[in-house]
């Protein structure tokens, strides 16, 4: 049994029974049986079920958003926005259910057809993190479902209530349509369940969202059995502001990217590179904006900034601030724990560190923004790319040539490359994911659906002859 706590006051909310390995075994068997039913349903009909799931979530969007705020700690508007993201991906998946498939290719042989057939992989395991306890499961499950897969979900133990609530909503839609609820199964649990999923050959694809350290362990376990994994790991994301930037865009963008979700997004801005000619002006304006951030209980609709998720996260924040000071940096705003119940810390701005300071190159899951000076485009593009992760990045400029150099082969090496917008707040229509230690996986839109399917190249001979490819004669 795990007790979940409210990050805003560290009061217990509920006790949730965690599954053991026997529960896991039973759940996998039921999910595999349910897949046999689901895979036989035509894709557009599967899309109709996913549409109903989106509608059911839409009807409960505020109460579910409130639960996210209560258990995870993000502010109410972000909690609702996260559920909205699941609703949006359901809507997207409905249309996709009538579009997935492969091409008919020209065959070099007379009387032959060459086609590409896409089939579901089978059972998709989804391990999600505490910071997006609804949306990331939604990205995976909605797309996996229209592709014809069953899903097995393990959420973060600290957001177990959210996992149970979402699963109940989805299961009711399935069962109302006389389909097994096990098509979307849930096992609450810790590392033992996650390890079982990674090592289980019956899990045909494992989507893992979490830290780079754990993601590497998951990848190795899955690869050992030649399984498939989809990894969404860390990010040490940068915003670059050139001297010609519109500061009316820069200040709110940097504020949202660094302070939103109390810095606990994988796409949060951790590094802010400012051209030396505007450095002092931007720092002053940003500090003024930080001072106006409304801090409060996350479930209040006017709160913009809530607590960190756990007491341990507060300790990590304080350790990072101490390292900043030891490495020669200056805290120009924040840097302290807020004197109130819960896991509240001040949003923090740091200046005076070199671009390659050890703490700057380390992803810290906290609201700490390192402000760094640069002179030239070439050097700052290189500094953007010098961290191990490659998730999100953004520049602010009006120079069209610079924009396309940023998007090109010598520009950002990230999976998300933005211009004049924050690093966070991605839309569902594009593929979401990153390079290097971020894991290389892609979820949500574009052609991410292909990761949830297996591809077969099929050659059909409808003639009475047997010509061989490449003109080979074997007689």
From TrEMBL:
GO terms for molecular function: betaine-aldehyde dehydrogenase (NAD+) activity; L-aminoadipate-semialdehyde dehydrogenase [NAD(P)+] activity. The keyword Iron-sulfur does not apply. Signal peptide: none annotated. InterPro entries: Ald_DH/histidinol_DH, Ald_DH_C, Ald_DH_CS_CYS, Ald_DH_CS_GLU, Ald_DH_N, Aldehyde_DH_dom, ALDH7A1-like. Its EC number is 1.2.1.3, 1.2.1.31, 1.2.1.8. The active site is at residue 232. Keywords: Acetylation, Cytoplasm, Mitochondrion, NAD, Nucleus, Oxidoreductase, Transit peptide. Pathway: Amine and polyamine biosynthesis; betaine biosynthesis via choline pathway; betaine from betaine aldehyde: step 1/1. It comes from the Eukaryota. Residues 3-455 form the Aldehyde dehydrogenase domain. Belongs to the aldehyde dehydrogenase family. Multifunctional enzyme mediating important protective effects. Metabolizes betaine aldehyde to betaine, an important cellular osmolyte and methyl donor. Protects cells from oxidative stress by metabolizing a number of lipid peroxidation-derived aldehydes. Involved in lysine catabolism. This is Alpha-aminoadipic semialdehyde dehydrogenase. It comes from Oriolus oriolus (Eurasian golden oriole). The gene is Aldh7a1.
């Amino acid at each position: 049994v795990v007790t979940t706590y409210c990050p805003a006051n560290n009061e217990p909310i509920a006790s949730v029974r965690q599954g053991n390995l026997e529960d896991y075994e039973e759940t996998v068997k039921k999910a595999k049986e349910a897949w046999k039913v689901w895979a036989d349903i035509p894709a557009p009909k599967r899309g109709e079920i996913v549409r109903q799931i989106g509608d059911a979530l839409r009807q409960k969007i505020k109460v579910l958003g409130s639960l996210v705020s209560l258990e995870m700690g993000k502010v109410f508007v972000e909690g609702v926005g996260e559920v909205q993201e699941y609703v949006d991906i359901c809507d997207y998946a409905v249309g996709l259910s009538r579009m997935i498939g492969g091409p008919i290719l020209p065959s070099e042989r007379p009387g032959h057809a060459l086609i590409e057939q896409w089939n579901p992989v089978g059972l998709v395991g989804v391990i999600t993190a505490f910071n997006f306890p609804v949306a990331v499961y939604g990205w995976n499950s909605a797309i996996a479902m229209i592709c014809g897969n069953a899903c097995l979900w393990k959420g973060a133990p600290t957001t177990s209530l959210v996992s149970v609530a979402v699963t109940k909503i989805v299961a009711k839609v399935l069962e109302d349509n006389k389909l097994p609820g096990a098509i979307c199964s849930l096992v609450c649990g810790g590392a033992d369940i996650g390890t079982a999923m990674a090592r289980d050959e019956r899990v045909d694809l494992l989507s893992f969202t979490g830290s780079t350290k754990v993601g590497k362990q998951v990848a190795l376990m899955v690869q050992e059995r030649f399984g498939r994994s989809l990894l969404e790991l860390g990010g040490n994301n940068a915003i670059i502001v050139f001297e010609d930037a519109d500061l009316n865009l820069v200040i709110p963008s940097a504020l949202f990217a660094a302070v939103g979700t109390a810095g606990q997004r994988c796409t949060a801005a951790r590094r802010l590179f400012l051209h030396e000619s505007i450095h002092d002006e931007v720092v002053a304006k940003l500090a003024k904006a930080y001072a106006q951030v409304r801090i409060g209980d996350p479930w209040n609709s006017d709160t913009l900034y809530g607590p960190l998720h756990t007491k341990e996260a507060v300790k990590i924040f304080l350790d990072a601030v101490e390292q900043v000071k030891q490495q020669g940096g200056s805290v120009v705003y924040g840097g302290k724990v807020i004197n109130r119940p819960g896991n509240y810390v001040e949003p923090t701005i740091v200046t005076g560190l070199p671009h390659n300071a050890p703490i700057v190159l380390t992803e810290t899951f906290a609201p700490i923004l390192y402000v760094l000076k640069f002179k030239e485009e070439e050097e700052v593009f290189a500094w953007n790319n010098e961290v191990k992760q490659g998730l999100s990045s953004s520049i602010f400029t009006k120079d069209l040539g610079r924009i396309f150099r940023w998007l090109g082969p010598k520009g950002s090496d990230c999976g998300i490359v933005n211009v004049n917008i924050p690093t966070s707040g991605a839309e569902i229509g594009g593929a979401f994911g990153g390079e290097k230690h971020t894991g290389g996986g892609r979820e949500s839109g574009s052609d991410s659906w292909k990761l949830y399917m297996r591809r077969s190249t099929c050659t059909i001979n409808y003639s009475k002859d047997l010509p061989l490819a490449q003109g080979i004669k074997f007689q």
